[in-house]
Amino acid sequence: MKIGVLGPLVVSIDGTSVVPSAAKPRQLLALLAVNAGRDVNVTTLTEELWDSSPPSGPAGVVQTYVKQLRRAIADALGPEHECAAKEVLSRSYAGYGLNMPAPVMEADLFQQLTGRGLRALAGGDDETASELLGQALEMWRGPLLADVRIGPALRVELLRLEEARRSALEGRITADLRLGRHTEVIGELLALTERFPLQEQLHGLLMLALYRCGRSWQALEIFRKLRASTTQELGIEPSSRVQKLHRAILTADPQLDLAAPSLAAF
């Protein structure tokens, strides 16, 4: 079984997709997919599908969706497969669970690569960190579960994966800056800071990249825009870390040189 959530939903068995076209069964399958190997109770499934407005007899409706999914799973398995559909999409006292021996889970592979990349970054192996984190980020096929309606339970999982993506992205750019690739990352960072106007780490990385390209005035302008955003939106000043970086740019601090530590020093 292959399970992918880093883009449109993918759940396939031996190359055959079992993702339904109907919105509610697809949403149910998505929640089971992000929790593959673990049971999801019926209450959580009900809240995901209908939030605070469930239909009459929601458990029965969930069971109907499960039967639809099992039919698709049975077709994908074929008559000769050692597993039955009820074993793949199982029912227990705790709820329903998606189970298959040794599933290939896209999100797990992403997190494994990210973990290895961040450990390499912490250990000073910037080439390895950039490569591993780049590979992890390339696994994203688009917005998370782009073709699935998102309810409260899925939203929690998506926030967790988005945070892991942000960590991988910041780590890869940090490694690239350490490797002298400041020119290459400026365009990417400009787009990211426009998308996330309150993300201080991204702004700090952009300030550093611009400074190292001899564009100090632009680096200072990025700080000005960040400060305007944080004071207007949050009512606070930028963190002391970013303010320290700002002062270092103003004074052309030697620590900002390429041979010196990157943003982590500030």
Topology of helices and strands:
Layout: E1 2-4, E2 10-13, E3 16-17, H1 23-34, E4 39-40, H2 42-50, H3 58-77, H4 85-88, E5 89-92, E6 95-98, E7 104-105, H5 106-122, H6 126-138, H7 152-178, H8 182-195, H9 200-212, H10 216-233, H11 240-250
Parallel strand pairs: 1-7
Antiparallel strand pairs: 1-2, 2-3, 4-6, 5-6
Helix pairs in contact: 1-3, 5-6, 5-7, 6-7, 7-9, 8-9, 9-10, 9-11, 10-11
Would you kindly provide a written description of the structure presented here, covering whatever features stand out?
This protein has helices at residues 23-34, 42-50, 58-77, 85-88, 106-122, 126-138, 152-178, 182-195, 200-212, 216-233, 240-250; strands at residues 2-4, 10-13, 16-17, 39-40, 89-92, 95-98, 104-105. The radius of gyration is 23 Å and the shape is elongated. α7 packs parallel to α9. By secondary structure, the protein is of the alpha+beta class. The strands form two sheets. The chain has a four-stranded mixed beta sheet with strand order 3-2-1-7. The chain is 59% helix and 8% strand. The model has no long low-confidence stretch (mean pLDDT 92). It starts with a strand and ends in a 16-residue tail after the last helix. A hairpin with a 2-residue loop joins β5 and β6 (95-98). The protein contains eleven helices and seven strands.
Q: Strand percentage, roughly?
A: 5-15%
Secondary-structure element order, N to C = EEEHEHHHEEEHHHHHHH
Question: What is the average of the pLDDT values?
Answer: 92
What would you call the shape? elongated
Sequence of strands across the biggest β-sheet: 3-2-1-7
Integer-rounded radius of gyration: 23 Å
Count of helices?
11
Broad structural category: alpha+beta
InterPro entries: AfsR-DnrI-RedD_regulator (IPR051677), BTAD (IPR005158), OmpR/PhoB-type_DNA-bd (IPR001867), Sig_transdc_resp-reg_C-effctor (IPR016032), TPR-like_helical_dom_sf (IPR011990), WH-like_DNA-bd_sf (IPR036388)
Protein name: AfsR/SARP family transcriptional regulator
Organism: Streptomyces niveus
Domain OmpR/PhoB-type: 1-100
